[in-house]
Amino acid sequence: MGLWKNLKYVLSDECNGLLRLLVDNYNKKTDKSEKTIREIALKVQQTLETQEVLDNNLSDSYQELKENKEVITKVSGQCDSVFEKCDAIVGQISRMETDAAARSHEIEKIFEQALEKQNEEFTQRNQKLASRIREVYNLIEAQNAKDPDEPDVNELLGRIDLLEKKNAEYEKQVQALQEELERTNSALAQADQNYQNEKRKTFGLSKKLVQANDKIGDLLGRFKDRALEDMIKKDETGTDSPFMISANKEKFTVTAGNVQVMIMKFTNTSVLDRFFEKVPDHDPYKKMYDHYQRNIRITARQFAAGAELEDALRAFLGVMQKDLIDKMLEAVSRRLRAGSAGFEEKLLEAVNRYLESAGFYSRDDIQAGNIFKEENYRDMECVRAEKADGAQPGEIVEVELYPYYINYIDKSGKRKRMHTQGVMAVAG
After folding, report:
1. pLDDT tens-digit readout, 183-218
2. 410 near 309, Cβ under 8 Å?
3. How far apart, in whole angstroms, are the C-alpha atoms of residue 270 and residue 213?
4. Which residues of 331-366 are buried (b: 16+ CB within 10 A; e: fewer)?
5. How many C-beta neighbours within 10 Å does residue 386 have?
6. DSSP class of residue 214?
7. How far apart are alpha carbons 215 and 390 in whole angstroms?
8. CA–CA separation, 427 vs 242, rounded Å?
9. Backbone φ and ψ of 28, nearest 5°
10. What is the pTM of this model?
11. Which is nearest to 284 in space by CA: 228, 322, 235, 331?
């Protein structure tokens, strides 16, 4: 009985092991499944054969086996059932393999259909792309086709070469002109230097002429004719000098509250404008006047209605000193001393009218022959006389430029005056 129990357990374990093998092989679904199932079936057959051998060889246990026939029959039924299940499982595996093969065939067919469809799509796309490429090539050929109205490139290149050659020639000509201009500028600079030298010589000659006139005056002083002596003396005092302006000496028309009126007087150059209307532009006096007129207007724009009177006066007198007196009147004075200055006399008359209309007057107590004292002539620049025959040291030999005064009333009501600087030659 115990032997049959052991055998039962062995058979049960064996059958369970076979079932587990079948399930594992089913889950794995490998190509070796059929072979494995056959091997399992073979092992089952061997197990049955082993069972038969045991039945034949176990005579000692026959009675016990007989007694347990029902158990054996039941076990046999169970074995049959197991075999049936194994056969069913084998059938299922076979069907599964068949289904897998069928599905694989279907998948291959689906893949083939998809590939065929994709190939058809690729073919259609390639055809469209080829058509588009042909269109692009046709468009490029159409664009590259020579336009009958387009100029010839070779002709244009020829023209460019010709223009480059001409440009090179023009550059050479410009270079030659620049060199010639530099030579001309150098010559002009040299000519200007020569002119300045001649100008200085002329000024020296004019001074010599003045000195000669002084000598003539000394000789004339020896004459016994008192009338002629008085006339010469009157001329030497300078009371009849063409530079004299005396109309505004006692007037105080410029006030601190009237700055704009004063500015308008300075900028009203209509007298000089009328004089220079017929004077050519290249005339040196015309250039001096244009420079003065431009600077006086620039100065006028710098002072608003509330500007300080003395600041404005200093600015305008500075322009007068630099551009009108030191340049224009100095040249007029030099020409008048030379004795041939018809144009300069008329110009001086116009300048005097302009200065008088602006409120200026000239100092009239400066005379040749007086002794220079610094406290009396702070408004004069003293230069050493080149020749002063018979003159004592410190004696005023010549008045070259007179100082011009303008009277004004400051904001506190005080009466004051402002002036330009004159120039006189003094014996050393």
Report:
1. 777 777 777 777 677 666 666 665 566 566 666 656
2. yes
3. 37
4. bbbbbbbeeebeebeebbebbbebbbbbbbbbbbeb
5. 13
6. H
7. 10
8. 24
9. -70, -35
10. 0.46
11. 331
